[in-house]
Amino acid sequence: MLNGEPMVDIRVLVIDDNAESLQIIRDTLEANGYGVETATDGEIGLNKVRFAVKQGKPYTLCVTDVMLPKISGIDLLKRAREASPTTGVLVITAFDE
């Protein structure tokens, strides 16, 4: 929240195939007033980015894991930037040994 006001105009797409990570990120963003949508693989995420652009409501930010099924986070980064140049993209990963 900014000055106590929800940031409803800030739309974030979170893409992660790990359900627990996806929920933690979503809950944190929503608790801070962001509008959040999710996807569980790169292909679904990219389709959501493209659909949002067609609707005239591109995402403000796309948060994506590096390791995703169907389309990697790096490929998604490139394609999302082509589809929606105004959408910021944050690539994350959790490394476990």
Using DSSP, what is the number of strands? 4
- Secondary structure class reads alpha/beta
Helical content, roughly? 25-40%
- Give the SSE order as H and E letters: EHEHEHE
Radius of gyration: 13 Å
Which percent range describes the beta-strand content?
Answer: 25-35%
The first-to-last residue Cα distance is 36 Å
Give the strand order of the largest sheet, numbering strands 1, 2, ... along the chain. Answer: 2-1-3-4
Mean pLDDT, rounded to whole units? 89
- Shape field: globular
Characterize the largest beta sheet: strand count, sense, and whether it forms a barrel: 4 strands, parallel
Number of helices: 3
List keywords for this structure.
alpha/beta; 4-stranded parallel beta sheet; 97 residues
Per-chain topology:
Layout: E1 7-15, H1 19-31, E2 34-39, H2 42-54, E3 61-65, H3 73-83, E4 88-92
Parallel strand pairs: 1-2, 1-3, 3-4
Report on this model:
The protein contains three helices and four strands; from the N terminus they run βαβαβαβ. The chain is globular and about 40 Å long. A four-stranded parallel sheet has the order 2-1-3-4, with helices on both faces. The protein has 97 residues and is α/β, with parallel strands linked by helices. The longest helix is centred in the first third of the chain and has 13 residues, at 19-31. Helix 2 packs parallel to helix 3. It has helices at 19-31, 42-54, 73-83; strands spanning 7-15, 34-39, 61-65, 88-92. Helix content is 38%, strand content 26%. The mean pLDDT is 89.
